[in-house]
Amino acid sequence: MNTPATTRILLADDHALVRRGVRLILDSEPDLTVVAEADDGAQAVAAARTEQIDLAILDIAMPRTTGLQAARELARLQPDLRILMLTMYDNEQYFFEALKVGASGYVLKSVADRDLVEACRAAMRGEPFVYPGVVTTLIRDYLDRAREGGPLPARAITDREEEVLKLVAEGHTSKEIAQLLVISAKTVERHRANLLQKLGLKDRLELTRYAIRAGLIEP
């Protein structure tokens, strides 16, 4: 039986082996327990509606709905929920997006055995967790932007356009996207045209490359 001090965790990752490994790390700690698992962002949001959880650990790049998209939705549904992002990639764009959606920390899968437990406890204390390598990234990013005289770039596309972009990059047709998002195929085409114009891209291939760079899908 869980003690009141036990942190109840939702773990979302589309790779079962990764989930198993992460769960072993977490369940071996007396104050942490995984009570729900999901293999995409949509399932994670659904699980959060039915399970009582304190902390969500979300892989950034998952099918259907990314961890970042799920984090935005979870933050709206449960403002007190703590969120950690899990990723393979040491990428400042992912890091800044994770902060924007309200995540408390950003943990690299390659060092999860070293950092994840500490990140969970920091999140539950209300403290941000920053892995050591990101400090160098942040300083480099700040210096680059200072030299260029520019601020952090504004988010170029809307949440709905991001959903469409991700599904296009995953190879779905306009008809399939329309069914998945419960909108018309004509609306999907309009979003696709807006994406091409806003991002200065020519075709589906370039949209897919952009989606990979933006962390919406894994290469």
TrEMBL record:
<keyword id="KW-0804">Transcription</keyword>
<dbReference type="InterPro" id="IPR058245">
    <property type="entry name" value="NreC/VraR/RcsB-like_REC"/>
</dbReference>
<dbReference type="InterPro" id="IPR000792">
    <property type="entry name" value="Tscrpt_reg_LuxR_C"/>
</dbReference>
<dbReference type="Pfam" id="PF00072">
    <property type="entry name" value="Response_reg"/>
</dbReference>
<dbReference type="InterPro" id="IPR039420">
    <property type="entry name" value="WalR-like"/>
</dbReference>
<dbReference type="InterPro" id="IPR016032">
    <property type="entry name" value="Sig_transdc_resp-reg_C-effctor"/>
</dbReference>
<keyword id="KW-0805">Transcription regulation</keyword>
<protein>
    <submittedName>
        <fullName>Response regulator</fullName>
    </submittedName>
</protein>
<feature type="modified residue" description="4-aspartylphosphate">
    <location>
        <position position="59"/>
    </location>
</feature>
<keyword id="KW-0597">Phosphoprotein</keyword>
<dbReference type="InterPro" id="IPR011006">
    <property type="entry name" value="CheY-like_superfamily"/>
</dbReference>
<dbReference type="Pfam" id="PF00196">
    <property type="entry name" value="GerE"/>
</dbReference>
<dbReference type="InterPro" id="IPR001789">
    <property type="entry name" value="Sig_transdc_resp-reg_receiver"/>
</dbReference>
<feature type="domain" description="Response regulatory">
    <location>
        <begin position="8"/>
        <end position="124"/>
    </location>
</feature>
<keyword id="KW-0238">DNA-binding</keyword>
<feature type="domain" description="HTH luxR-type">
    <location>
        <begin position="150"/>
        <end position="215"/>
    </location>
</feature>
